[in-house]
Structure formats: C-alpha cells, structure tokens
Design a protein that fits this description.
The complex is a heterodimer.
Chain A lengths: L33 E4 L5 H14 L5 E5 L13 E3 L11 H14 L3 E4 L10 H13 L3 E7 L6 H15 L11 E4 H14 L10 H8 L3 E8 L10 H18 L1 H4 L24 H14 L1 H7 L2 H11 L10 H17 L4 H24 L4 H14 L1 H9 L7
Parallel strand pairs in A: 1-2, 1-4, 2-3, 5-7
Antiparallel strand pairs in A: 4-6, 5-6
Helix pairs in contact in A: 2-5, 4-7, 4-14, 7-13, 9-13, 12-13, 12-14, 12-15
Chain B lengths: L1 H79 L2 H7 L12 H32 L6 H35 L5 H23 L5 H25 L1 H16 L1 H10 L1 H5 L4
Helix pairs in contact in B: 1-3, 4-5, 5-6
Classes of the chains: A alpha/beta, B mainly alpha.
C-alpha cells in the first residue's frame, strides 16, 4: 500500500472529493498494482476496510475507489479515490465497469477487485482471494461462488446459471455476481461493451462470464463463503425480473453465432452435502395457486410462446397436489428455451413475455422448495436442472435456426 | 248473313287492335328513347371520366415505381450507416420493435407513403373529371380521406385494445386477482367501443344516435367494471382498512406478525 511521507502536509480541513483533483498534485494517489472498487460506506467503515485490505495484501500496492459521501481525511488521500456514486438500479452496472477501467488505465493497475454493497467493513478472505487469483494466476476473470441459504438467489439457480453454463460452457455458479476480480484487459473489454451499448450506463447490465467466454479470456471460480447479497433498489419483483432476464436474453441473442457451435460441457461441480440450510417454511401453496390462476387465464398468451408439448406438461402440472408439486427439469428447460426463442422472434411484446414467464417461474420455485424440503440437496437439484438444459440444447439450436419447423 | 256477321265482327275487332298497336309502338319508342338517352349519358360520362381513370392508374403506377426506387435507396443507405445496430443499442425502444428490422420498416413505410400519395393524386384527378361532367357535384376525395382515416382508426384501436387487454390480464394474474380475465375483457371492449364510436363519428354516420349509444355503452362497461372490482376486492379493502386501524393501536402485535411472516423473509429471488 502506498504510504504517506512525512513531507506531505496534514491539512486541518480536509478537501472534499471534488477538491482532490485540484489541490496539491502530490496528494493525489500514486500508481498501484491493484485497484479495489468499494461500494459507498461511512468513513469509519472505510478505514476499517482499508485495514483489512492492508492485512490481506501485505506486499501489494493498492488503491481504493469508492463513492464517499463526506470529505476524505488526509490519511486516506493517498490510497482512496473518491468517485461519483453510480446511480444504478442493479448493484453492479455498466457504469461501474467503465469507471473501473478509467481509473485502472489512469493509474496503470494490473488487476481490479470489484466488491459490491454489503461486502465490508470486514472484507472476507474469500473476496480478497479473487484479486489474488487474477494477480498470481494470470486469470482474466475471477468469479465468486457464494454460500447462500438454500432458498436464496432463486432466479440465478432457475435461469441464469443453467442457461449461462449451457450456452457459454462456463462453470460459474453466479454469472451475475456483484463481486469479481478482473484483469486489465478484461476490464477494458467490459468497459468497451458497456459504452457500445449506449443509453444510461447505470441501467446497463453486463454479463462478464459471457463476454469472457466469447473473448477467449480465462475464467476461474473461487468459493468466497457466506455473503449477504443486497436487495435490488427496485422493490417490484416483476420489473427486476424483466430487467435481469431481458438483459440475459438480449445478451444470448447478440452472441448467437458463438453459442450455436458445439462446445465441451464443463465438468460437474463438486457438490458439498453440508450446505443444506432449510430452516423456515415457504408459502408454496400461494405460488402454486398463482400458477394455477395463470394456467386458467394465460393459455392464449402461452400458446403463442410455448410448444404444444410444454402446454400439455403445464396442464398436467396444474393438477398436482401441493405436496407432490414438482416441475420436471426437462419441462422447465424446454419452457425457458421457448421463451428465449419467442424473445428472439418477438412473438409477443417483450414486456408481456416476461410477465407471462413469472407464474411458471413461481411454479418452478414451489417445486424446488418441495424438493429441498423432502430432504434432497438443493445444489443437486440445481445441477440436475443445468444438466436438463444441456441435454435440451439441440432443441434450442434447431428452433433458433428454423423456428417454423414443427416442434411437438 | 253469316258473312255479314263475320265482317261486322272483324271490323269491331280490328279497330281496338289498331289503337293498341299504336299505343305499343309509342311505349317501345319511349322506352328505346329513354334507353338511348341513358346509354348516351353513361357512355358520354364514361368517355368524359376515362381520362380521369387513366390519370388515376398512371398516377398510382408512377408513384409505386417512385416508392420502390426510394425504398430500395433507403434500405441500402440505412444498411450502410448500420441503422439497425444503432437502434438496437437503445434499450428503451427495444420492447416496441416488431419482428422485422428497423431499416426494412423505414423502407416499407416510404414505399407505402408514395403509393398513398399516388392514390390521393389519382383520386383527385378522378374527382375533377367527375365534377366537370356531371351536373350534380360529386366530391369523392373528402369522403375517401374520411374512409382512410376511419380504417386507420380501426386498426390502431384494435391494436391498442389487444395490447391493453394483454397488459391488464398479465398484470392482474401476477397480482393474483381472480377476476383477471373479466377485467381484461372489460378493458378490451372499452377500447373497442370507443374506437367504433370514433370510426362512426369520423364517417359521419349515425350522428347523435352514435354519441348517445356510445355514452350508454361506455358508462355501462365502466359501471360494470367498477362494481365487479369493488365487490371482488371487498375482502382486500376490509383487510387493508383493518391493518391500518391496527397499525396505530398495537405496535406490539404488528412486530409479532412481522416475526411470523417467515415465508417472505425466507425466500429470496435475487
């Protein structure tokens, strides 16, 4: 870490974040090996985080960039860069990657560690390890694997993980993680992609795993232990669901030429059996009722999207008793693929498309909860879902290329 | 005697026959005159309108050719400047783009605009030739524009009705409202009735009867929906009111309820 020298005066009234750029140039942060992007936090917590980082990287010079609400104290000026708070709907947006790349370029850093909200002040060793992987092993993208409660991150388990793994042959369990380690060239690519997408960078979601796969970058995954994932700023589930799934579908559509080629399937993950954490109960009956209501009312819309086989499968599912309710993995994968194809074909308005997917997703969640409550390991079930996605990939490729061909 | 009777009979019979034949000849003459005059009028009208008709077809043909050329030019020009890619970067418009590419839409729109212009100019020429030949002034163009406007209103109204019906249906299903389909149908017919009234008003058909019927129908549908939603949501409203009244009275009870609401805390979608 860059140390303060004696000659550097300690000011009584610390400059504000905006003043840092115009005050004495000698007070500006120097070049470093690692850039750590931290979420906004109070000054005391920031100091504590710096202490933890110093312990974690004893022989590495690093800089911290964080949105600071108050003025930085002089002892922080050499190691902390104040940045504007990214006004984004998701914890990690295109704006964060662009800012990270700009600072990395300016300070000539080798690696970037991006840590999302609620990561500190006691930054875990697992999260710090993401930077070590990039620095020591020359990995371009270090993704975390969180130990979440069994019934958390369900959208990720149901759609994001299996779809990303199947199409981009990536073993990353959390493709939309909010913490990651990046090499400089990976950061450059992500910043370029974010800028190219245009629009409001704060609302642009990027898929680093997909970009790394397409760009031929090296990806690794590290277990970072337990992590409290922050809630999205938007409280309405329907709109967050549409934003996240819409972004993934758009990314898949733009990379169709890449994923249609056959690829080696990633080796099955080593699953631990001690992660089961099924305390509490969930209102599966309410979710099943929501699905049944949709099954009664949304047939007209579903028939524009789903294949006849899937429609029959859903009809059968709606007749199951709550205790036996479980969506077959093959049916779920086929449904997601049908929605992906409908997204590409613009069979119906895309806002309506995601709205029509929500009740089926809730049915999957109800089934998943039933599976876990019956004693089965949640990760085993998610692995089975991912395997079903992989087995059904030829169907997706076939319908993507020839959508009008008859598909039962 | 017999001959006499025969002569008398012949003379008696031949007199009315001569008169009848004279009358018949007069009717046929009048009919043929009328037919001749009618045929003459129609033929002269056709001869007078023929240049107008010819002008109509030539105008449509020329403008269709211009439209095709313009469409082709626009398509190539937009592809050169990567118009599709630029537009697809803008996520705000992404949901509204139809299946075909934006450059194809622009090209098609330019073609159909040219064709429409050709039709309007052709109809104007036809209209002018009509006005010059017939004593009764017939003006087709204003009414034709009304018809085109009415068709446009009908198409747009139907699209909006379908879009809103689906939006309401999906929104209501996701909000777990049991009367989702009924609500969706109500909204659909509300928009369709409004569209029909606007179309008839645009075509100047019906006059005040349409306005009156529309008012009654629209009011009826709104009242029905209000009653249905109001009666259907009675439990929901009473629960909300109860929770509000309990909010200030017993904070301890509320905290207990929050602690018990494990399902929501237990489940995390993101």
């Amino acid at each position: 870490m860059t140390q303060l020298s004696d000659s550097e005066a300690v000011r009584n009234d610390p400059p504000t974040a905006d003043e840092v750029a115009v005050v004495d140039p000698s007070l500006k942060p120097l070049e470093a090996t690692l850039l750590v992007m931290l979420a906004s936090m109070p000054l005391e917590q920031l100091k504590e985080s710096l202490g933890h980082l110093k312990n974690s990287f004893p022989s590495t010079t690093f800089l911290v960039a964080t949105p600071s609400d108050g003025a930085l104290t002089p002892d922080l000026l050499h190691s902390v860069i104040s940045i504007a708070s990214p006004n984004s709907s998701w914890p990690l947006s295109g704006a964060s990657f662009v800012r990270a790349w700009e600072i990395a370029e300016e300070k000539n850093v080798r690696a970037i560690l991006i840590l999302g909200p609620d990561s500190g002040p006691q930054i875990s060793d697992g999260l710090c390890h993401l930077a070590s992987v990039v620095l020591d092993l020359d990995t371009d993208l270090a993704m975390p694997c969180y130990d979440l409660p069994t019934h958390a991150g369900l959208v990720n388990s149901a759609i994001l993980f299996p779809l990303t793994r199947t199409l981009f042959a990536s073993g990353s369990r959390f493709p939309l993680a909010i913490d990651m380690g990046l090499s400089r060239r990976m950061a450059e690519r992500l910043a370029t992609i974010a800028k190219a997408k245009g629009g409001n960078l704060g609302d642009t979601l990027l898929w680093p795993v997909n970009e790394a796969s397409v760009g031929g970058f090296t990806i690794s995954e590290s277990n970072v232990g337990r992590r409290i994932l922050p809630h999205p700023r938007e409280t309405d589930f329907n709109s967050v669901f549409a934003q996240v799934i819409g972004s993934l579908f758009a990314d898949v559509e733009s990379k169709a030429a890449f994923w249609q080629r056959p690829r080696r399937v990633p080796s099955p993950r080593h699953l631990r059996d001690d992660l089961q954490d099924t305390e509490g109960t969930s209102d599966t009956v309410r979710m099943i009722e929501a699905f049944r209501l949709a099954n009664t009312n949304l047939q007209e819309i579903w028939s524009l999207v789903l294949s006849p086989n899937s429609l029959v499968g859903l009809k059968r599912l709606s007749t199951l008793a709550p205790n036996d309710f479980r969506m077959p993995e093959s049916l779920w994968s086929r449904i997601v693929y049908d929605f992906l194809i409908a997204y590409k074909l613009r069979a119906i308005n895309r806002g309506h498309l995601f709205g029509a997917l929500i009740p089926i997703y809730l049915a999957w969640v109800a089934g998943h909860i039933n599976v876990t409550l019956s004693g089965a390991n949640a990760e085993h079930h998610i692995e089975a879902v991912a395997a079903a996605f992989e087995a059904d990939k030829p169907y997706l490729v076939s319908r993507w290329r020839w959508p009008d061909r008859f598909n039962p | 005697m017999g001959n006499m009777i025969a002569i008398l009979l012949q003379s008696n019979l031949s007199q009315p026959l001569q008169t009848r034949s004279l009358e018949d000849a007069s009717i046929w003459q009048h009919m043929s005159e009328a037919l001749h005059q009618s045929l003459y009028r129609v033929l002269s009208l056709l001869i007078a309108v023929l240049p107008g008709l010819l002008a109509f077809f030539v105008s449509v043909l020329v403008f269709a050719l211009i439209g095709m050329a313009l469409s082709s030019l626009l398509r190539r020009g937009l592809e050169l400047i990567h118009f599709n890619d630029r537009l697809s970067r803008n996520r705000a418009t992404d949901d509204w783009l139809p299946m075909t590419s934006p450059s194809a839409i622009v090209a098609r729109a330019s073609f159909w605009t040219c064709l429409l212009a050709g039709i309007i100019i052709g109809v104007a020429a036809l209209d002018a030739s009509f006005a010059a030949t017939t004593p009764i002034p017939i003006s087709m163009l204003p009414y034709l524009t009304h018809v085109v406007g009415a068709i446009f209103l009908l198409v747009v109204g139907s699209l909006i009705a379908r879009f809103l019906a689906r939006s309401v249906l999906i929104g209501a299903v996701n909000a777990q409202l049991q009367y989702a389909r009924f609500l969706s149908l109500g909204v659909k017919w509300l928009v369709l009735v409004l569209t029909a009234a606007m179309v008839l008003d645009h075509l100047q058909i019906g006059g005040t009867i349409v306005e009156l019927a529309f008012g009654i129908l629209f009011g009826g549908i709104v009242l029905t929906l209000a009653l249905a939603v109001g009666l259907g949501s009675r439990d929901l409203v009473s629960r909300t009111l109860e929770s509000h009244s309990e909010h200030g009275a017993d904070s301890g009870t509320k905290s207990q309820r929050v602690q018990n609401s494990t399902p929501e805390e237990f489940l995390r979608h993101f």
